[in-house]
Design brief:
14-stranded mixed beta sheet; about 30% strand; alpha/beta; 4-stranded mixed beta sheet; single chain
Length: about 400
């Protein structure tokens, strides 16, 4: 029995949600992945508290599960829960590749750029970061708005002196610009960079490698799945086959390869299983296994449509999409995940930001309160930005949970 078949067997034996799926879709063999329907982001969002396997819901109530929230470029927030043992197993294959291919260990010092600090106010000066545990420096990138802050960030990174960076491409680009503009030297011990979260352009990759003079690998992952694919030194994006199964959905059906929507099954999360989950990414999966000295798994040839945006105001102030993502994350923490879809639209000529939100049906009556809370969060974070801001309630943004950019600029 393969790992996939063993996983599906265990899920069928312990998970009521998927037991109902088996009955509803007349699945004759619960260990046959091809008989399962597609799980959308919207379905996950609507059923997330009904998807726990036997014994895990009680762990959820006593906060013994790890919650991972995905609100990124999809604009459809979802929560996924993990048993800690499963979570470590899920990440193990990626850490093994980091060690084998680039000599990177979990104990090495590194910098991660994240939304680790809520309820903070952007003042245009402070760089918010946390050094806990001691080998990890976490930086709140949503509150970086100008060159001076990036200069402070570069100085903090140099003082921390990391072995590697776990960085989004737009932050990497700003760091390169900052180091060059101020004539700063790179961290003395830096010997590896990992790009995450967005599409990494070939030009940015070339500039980063030339400037920092270290290997740079692209990692494709998500909060729902953890690591999905990882770039080897031969520049192939190998699927992390011990963690996920990837299929391709397009107009002709669901296939083992080709170009289309990535349909992903995590092989380690038994607490809240995601079988044939469509997280909204468009990829091209190689039809044949490429000969590579580093790995024999299938290759992702291209990841399409994973990008973020930002506003550059007339005074040079920069506002990135992560800041807006943080607003919705804080709001959903306060109002028990009341926002089920959202998008921010910057109307450049009008110098106006429209926040579009779709709420749970029972939350519509609370819209005046939600609107007030969003405006307060915006003012708290962007008190120094002089630009219009309004909140609108809408019936729909995407279609059936399809991925769209959480932030876009229009004229």
């Amino acid at each position: 029995m393969t790992k996939l078949e063993a996983f599906l067997k265990k899920v069928y034996e312990t998970n009521e949600f998927y037991q109902n799926i088996v009955k509803e879709y007349n699945i004759t063999d619960p260990t046959d992945i091809t008989q399962y329907p597609i799980l959308t982001r919207q379905q996950l969002q609507e059923n997330r508290y009904n998807m726990f396997s036997k014994g895990y819901k009680s762990k959820y109530f006593v906060q013994q599960l790890r919650r991972q929230t995905s609100s990124g470029s999809s604009g459809v927030p979802v929560n996924v829960y993990w048993d800690y043992k499963n979570w470590y197993a899920s990440n193990l294959s990626l850490w093994r590749k980091r060690r084998q291919w680039y000599g990177i260990h979990p104990s090495d010092k590194y910098v991660v750029f994240t939304l680790n600090a809520f309820n903070l106010k952007a003042d245009g000066e402070t760089v918010y970061c946390v050094n806990d545990p001691k080998n990890i420096l976490s930086v709140n990138i949503s509150l970086l708005q100008n060159k001076e802050q990036y200069k402070k960030l570069a100085e903090i990174i140099n003082e921390f002196n990391p072995i590697w960076l776990y960085v989004q491409p737009f932050v990497l680009n700003r760091l390169i610009e900052t180091y060059k503009f101020y004539g700063l030297t790179k961290p003395a011990e830096l010997r590896y960079i990992e790009s995450v979260g967005e599409l990494l352009s070939s030009d940015l990759k070339r500039r980063a490698v030339e400037f920092f003079k270290v290997p740079l690998a692209n990692m494709y992952g998500s909060e729902e799945m953890n690591g999905i694919a990882y770039e080897c030194p031969e520049h192939h994006m190998h699927i992390l086959g011990n963690n996920v199964l990837i299929e391709i959905k397009n107009d002709t059906g669901i296939h083992e390869s080709g170009e289309g929507e990535a349909i992903i099954t995590n092989l380690n999360n038994t607490a809240m299983p995601l079988i044939r989950y469509n997280q909204g990414d468009i990829i091209a999966l190689n039809k044949t296994i490429i000969s590579c000295p580093y790995d024999c798994h299938l290759i992702i040839q291209q990841i399409i449509g994973r990008s973020l945006d930002c506003i550059i105001l007339d005074d040079g102030t920069e506002v990135n999409s992560y800041a807006f993502l943080e607003i919705i994350s804080e709001l959903n923490n306060q109002f028990r995940d009341i926002v089920i879809e959202y998008q921010f639209v910057y109307r450049k000529l009008q110098k106006m930001i429209n926040c579009l939100v779709r709420l749970k049906p029972e939350g519509t009556a609370w819209f005046p309160n939600i609107k007030k809370a969003i405006i307060e969060l915006y003012k708290h974070k962007f008190s120094c930005i002089k630009i219009g801001f309004e909140v609108k309630l809408v019936d729909n943004i995407g279609i059936n949970g399809e991925k769209h950019k959480i932030f876009k600029t229009v004229t």
